[in-house]
Specification:
Length: about 200
């Protein structure tokens, strides 16, 4: 009960202003037929976060990204690249009141400082690999939209989506920030989500 109270209070205290401002990317590891077999820094969907971080670390890094929906899911965020072998940071989603902190969403990140073309190249490389290695997958994109966080309408998001037969998803996005949005850097995000989390989010 204490843990549940602490997580919920942490969520209430954090600001959700920048939900869309900080997205992550990562190069793709070896792929498998089931998204739950993907790994980012050794982690997979369905694992317990407690196998990789302490309860205190998880709770202290909880961000208030989803409170505008409800409190079913929470996300903890680690931005120190020194913690990881390949990525600049990780975002990990779990059910708020799950004492085992089972992972429902994984994101990792690489920044492309004023290099959106490099981001697009990496996005396409990852997309081609996903298309080759998955048998039961449907693809949408790449598409371009105005980024909702930029009131000047000069920032764009370009994404490719893969929908697996089991309902899990892979989302690959490049964010091209305008000069008005500095110091935010162009970045590519790849997100692995369970069907349950993705359905709830949308």
């Amino acid at each position: 009960l204490w843990k549940r109270y602490w997580v919920k209070m942490t969520l209430m205290k954090k600001l959700s202003t920048y939900l869309f401002l900080f997205l992550f990317s990562f190069s793709v590891p070896s792929f498998a037929e089931d998204i739950s077999e993907f790994q980012i820094e050794g982690m997979s969907l369905g694992d317990s976060l407690l196998d990789y971080f302490s309860e205190e670390e998880i709770i202290n890094n909880v961000q208030d990204y989803y409170s505008y929906i409800d409190d079913k899911f929470s996300v903890t965020e680690f931005n120190n690249s020194k913690l990881f072998n390949n990525y600049d940071g990780l975002k990990i989603t779990f059910k708020t009141y799950d004492n085992d902190f089972v992972i429902h969403g994984l994101s990792g990140g690489i920044f492309f400082d004023n290099n959106i073309e490099g981001c697009y190249k990496k996005r396409d490389e990852i997309s081609n690999e996903v298309s080759t290695l998955f048998k039961n997958v449907s693809k949408e994109g790449p598409d371009f939209t105005k980024h909702p966080a930029d009131q000047s309408n000069k920032s764009t998001a370009s994404g490719v989506s893969f929908f697996l037969k089991n309902g899990n998803v892979v989302l690959i996005d490049c964010i091209d920030w305008s000069e008005e949005m500095r110091p935010y850097m162009d970045n590519l995000s790849v997100n692995y989500r369970t069907k349950e989390f993705n359905d709830w989010l949308y």
